[in-house]
Amino acid sequence: MSNCLIAQSGGPTSVINASLSGVISSSIESSAINTVYGSINGIQGVLNNNLINLSSIFKDSKEKLERLKLTPSMFLGSCRYKLPNIEDDNEQYKLIFDIFKQNDIKYFFYIGGNDSMDTVLKLSQYAKAYKQDVKIIGIPKTIDNDLYGTDHTPGFGSAAKFVATTLLEISYDTYIYDIPSVTIVEIMGRNAGWLTASSALARNKNNSSPDLIYLPEVPFSIAEFIENLKQLQKKKRNIVVAVSEGIKDKNGNYICACQNSTNDKFGHAKLSGTGKTLEDIVCNELNCKVRSIELNVLQRSAMHIASLTDVTESTLVGKKAVEYALEGYTGKMVSIIRKNNNSYEYEITHVDIEKVANKEKRIPGEWISKDKNDITAPLLEYIKPLIYGEPNIEYKEGLPNYININHLFS
Amino acid sequence: MSNCLIAQSGGPTSVINASLSGVISSSIESSAINTVYGSINGIQGVLNNNLINLSSIFKDSKEKLERLKLTPSMFLGSCRYKLPNIEDDNEQYKLIFDIFKQNDIKYFFYIGGNDSMDTVLKLSQYAKAYKQDVKIIGIPKTIDNDLYGTDHTPGFGSAAKFVATTLLEISYDTYIYDIPSVTIVEIMGRNAGWLTASSALARNKNNSSPDLIYLPEVPFSIAEFIENLKQLQKKKRNIVVAVSEGIKDKNGNYICACQNSTNDKFGHAKLSGTGKTLEDIVCNELNCKVRSIELNVLQRSAMHIASLTDVTESTLVGKKAVEYALEGYTGKMVSIIRKNNNSYEYEITHVDIEKVANKEKRIPGEWISKDKNDITAPLLEYIKPLIYGEPNIEYKEGLPNYININHLFS
Q1: Considering the domain boundaries, does residue B370 fall inside one?
Q2: Catalytic residue, candidates B144, B146, B211, B310
Q3: DSSP 3-state assignment of B61?
Q4: Any chain A CB within 8 A of the CB of B42?
Q5: Range of the domain at B41
C-alpha cells in the first residue's frame, strides 16, 4: 500500500472542494491507498514539504466530508506557481519527487485550470523521463470554462448560475424607476466569454435582459456600443449590458481603466474596471441614469447559489481521478463528455494532458451573434443544463455552515 | 364597500413585495374592501391616475400571490417624489384626493422608507385638515434599518443576510493565497451603519473576518485606518475590511471618490467608490495585494438569499396595515416591537407617523466599539435573529421563478 497526495491551484470555484471531497472519499475507500495527504498551497506546499494528513481529518466523518463538498474557497489553499522547464532547471523536480518518495506518494492529484495542467504536464514528463513510478492526474476546475479536452469545466456551472441569478435580480431592480437607465454588469473571464455568455440565461418570458452581451472573443468598439445603446433606447427604458472584464479594442488593448497595472506571475494582466470605464463613457454620451456593477469574486465563491449539477459532476471527476490513477493512467486530465444535449447526459473519461495544458478554449464564432453583441441559441442550450439543481446547503443561525479552513494560516 | 390603493416608493428591498402580498391578501379577504388597486411608480402613479386592478390579477391565484411574495424588486414600481408643503401648494393634494374619490379609495397604503413616510405624513395631514375620509397608513421598508418607531425595518434582515453570507464567502476566498492581502468590502447605508454592522455576523468559530468595520456614524481617519491595518498585519495574513459607502472625514466630507457628483431629488449625495478610494490609498501605503468589492444593488435584490424571518415579518406588516386601516386608524406607520431578544419574539403595532417621517435612526454610540472600528456584542445580538431561516424559493430550470413585472414598462 502506498499513499496519495492532493493539491489545489489557481483561482477558487464554489465547487473545487467538491472535487477534493471526491478524491478523499474514493482514496479512503480504496484498499490500494494507505494515507491521503494534502499539500498546502498547491505545488509550493510540496516544495516546502508542507503536507497535512487528510485521512486523519476525514476518515471517520462522512458529515465532515459532506461539509467540505459544500464549502467554497480551497481547503488546501492555492498558489500561482509555474514550474521551470525541466531542461532549464530540474532541481525543483528532484525535490518534488524526493518528497513524494519520503512520503511514499504513488499518486498525485492536481485540481486546477490550464496553468495548473502545465504543472501536471511537466511532472508527468519528468516522471516518464526519470522513470519515477508516480501517477500524475489533473482534475479540471475553472469558472472560466476555457479548458480543452472536456465538454465543460467543473466550477463553471455554479459561476454561471450565480451570474444568471444575479443578472435576473439586477434586471428586476432596474425596472422600478420610470426614467431611462443603462446598467453595465462586469463579469469575469479574461480571454474567454463563457461566463459572460451565461448572463443570457437570465432571459425568460418575464425578462428580456441582458440586452447586450459583449464577449472578449470580439474586438470591442466604443462607437458601436454607444450606437447599440441609442438604438435600444428607442425601444426600451431600462437597459442591462453584460460585459466581460477582458474586452479589448481592435488593436488588442484592454478597454478597462487599469491597462497599465501589473501582470500576475503567468503574465496575465490584472483586470478590473471595465464596467466603470464604460459607465463613464455612457455618462458622457447618453442623457440617462448609468450604473456599473462588478460581480467580482462572488462569481467564484457564492456556494450558497451553486449548481447541484456542478457539485455532483465536480465530486465525480474527483472520484474518477482516483479510479484512473489506480488503473495505472498518468499524464491525464479527467474530462466530461456530453452524450446528449436534449436530455442532458454526460460521462466521465480522461484525456492526454498535452491536449489541455497551456491552451485556452474560447467561444467559437458560430456561437456569437452576427452583430457581435449577443450569443446564439446553441450556446444558450449548451450552458443551460449546467446550472440545474440546488444543493442542500446546511444553514446555522441563518448562515451557510462551511468547514473550518483555519489550518491555511495557522 | 369601498376600495383600497397601494403604492411602493424609494429603493427596493428583496421583500417589499412580501409586504405588498400581505396588503393584497388581507384586502381581498376583507368584506369591507371591494377592489384592491395599485398605483404604478408610487405617488406619481396617483397624480397620473396610473392605477392597476390588483384584485383581478391576484383574486383567484394563491400561487401568484406566493410568487409575488418571493419576488425581489417592486411589483408596482417606485418613485423618488417629494410632495410640496401643503401650505405652499395644495393643488397636488387636491388632485390626489380627487383621484381617490373617483376610484372610491377609502384606504391608502404606502410602502417605503423615511422619505416615503413624509408622503404618508403630508397626505394624512391634508386629509385631516380638509376632512377627507381616507385612512392613510405607512408600511415600513428599507435595507438601511434607519427608521424610528420600529425595532427594525422589513427588508433589513434579508439585506443583512446577503451581506453576512457574502462577507463569509469573500473571507474564505481571501484565505487561499499565502501572501498578505487586504480586501475592502463596500456596503450600502448612506448615514446609518446598520447594514455595514451586519457584516460582523460572518464571524464564527471558523472565521474571524471582517477584521475592521467602519461605520458612517464615526468620523473616518485615513491615518488611523492605515495604522489599524499595519497593526493587524502583524497578526493576520489576509485582512477583510467592511466599510460603509457613507463614511466621512472629521469635517463631514465623504471619503468616496465621487464627492462632487450630483445629489438626488431628496438632496442625498449619490455615493459610490468608497471602497475603490480606500483600495488606492492602501495600495500606496502598504506592500500587499489589495482588492475592493462593492456589493452594490445585490444587497437590495438578492431574494435568493433572503431571510425567512424577514419575509414573514414583511408579509405580516402588510396584513396588519389593512387591519389598522379598517379599524379606523390613519396617519400611522405599522411597526415591529421586540418583546424578547433571548428567544426572539416580536409583535406588530403602529406608531404616529410624525414620530417617523424625515428622521434617520443611526447606531447609538454604545453599540460602537471604543476604538471606533468595530461594533459591540449587543448590536450583534440585536441583528442576529433577523437573518434566521431560508424561504422556499421556487426554481425553474436552475433559476428563481419570479413573477412577471412587465406591466411596469408596457
Answers
A1: no
A2: B144
A3: coil
A4: no
A5: 2-155+303-359+389-408
